[in-house]
Amino acid sequence: MVLLPSPAGATSAVEVAAGPSRAVLSRPYEAAEIGERSMSTRQLDAAQVQQRYGRLLAVQPPPEQRLTLFFELGGAQLTADSAAQLDTVIQQATARPGGEIVVIGHTDRVGTMEANDLLSLQRAQAIRELLIQRGFPATRTEAVGHGEREPLVATADEVAEPRNRRVEIVVR
Do 101 and 131 contact (CB within 8 A), yes or no? Predict the structure, then answer.
């Protein structure tokens, strides 16, 4: 087993277990080799991993892609800039064969948490419907609302922040 680097550079680790032997791989290209009665770890580099597993690496799916659209205050109406980008965003989202799309709606902190939960879901559902209308399969498209819980810009309650009124389209 080889721990590959995370596409976004995030830290990751994996625990490998074989019988009573255990090892934690926590550095990119760290490898665990399991024998009949033992396990050993060693540090590889990118060239070694490419040489040994190149054919396997060539067929892995591309990393997920994140696209963002922004909304006007209090509804599911896209801003003029986001509306102008909509065709490009949808084209990018649907160009990935066999993938799935998760549309995550967000709001700013104006209004109650309950109202923002509903509004964020409405925003996500509106964009999901546009994706389906443009030919993306409904069975591979999901809409979820996160309300005001994950702002791009931290604000106090009842502050209208345009960058927090958004949907993130995750294509994976």
Answer: yes
Q: List alpha helices for 106-165, DSSP H.
A: 113-133
Rounded Cα distance between 73 and 151, Å, is 15
pLDDT digit string, tens, across residues 114-141? 999 999 999 999 999 988 998 888 999 9
Q: Which of 6, 41, 58 is the last residue of a domain?
A: 58
Taking the C-alpha atoms of residue 71 and residue 73, their distance in angstroms, rounded to an integer, is: 6
Smallest Cα–Cα separation from 15: which of 2, 24, 7?
Answer: 24
Instruction: Check if the beta carbon of residue 107 is closer than 8 Å to that of residue 157.
Output: no
Question: Is 0.70 topped by the overall pTM?
Answer: yes
Residue 88 lies in a domain: yes
Same-domain check for residues 127 and 151: yes
Same domain, 80 and 133: yes
Is 76 in the same domain as 143?
A: yes
SS3 117: helix
Three-state SS for 33-72 is: EECCCCEEEEECCHHHHHHHHHHHHHCCCCCCEEEEEEEC
Residue 9 lies in a domain: no
Computed on alpha carbons and rounded to an integer, the radius of gyration of the chain in Å comes to 21
Look up the domain containing 167 and give its range: 65-171
